[in-house]
Amino acid sequence: MGTWRLAPHDPGAPVPSLTVRPLDGCRGVRAAGEVALATHTIWERVLERAVREGEGVYHLELSEVTFVDVAGAGALAAAAERLGDGRRFVVRRPPPTLRRVLETFWPDLSTIEVSMS
Fold it and tell me: What is the pTM of this model?
């Protein structure tokens, strides 16, 4: 899968970036940075790949993600809705705001499991 990183080219302003690497030992990725307008392309590619990859559990390790905007949460929920029977995302240690947005807008989405450990 490799490592993906995207950041706009405005040297004078702080910009969000998102780095994604494969997880060792299980199917999934470890992300670091922010999911925001400037990084949606990477986030959506990761989610689309996860939907296409086989069956079972796909882990999203987000302990190093500091922010996920509402569009990023919506993209996660939309991808989870496209998972086949018996499949799910396990979202590990997400930023508190992502957990709250998922609980508020998609409380019954059984294809996303949030783990704080």
Answer: 0.85
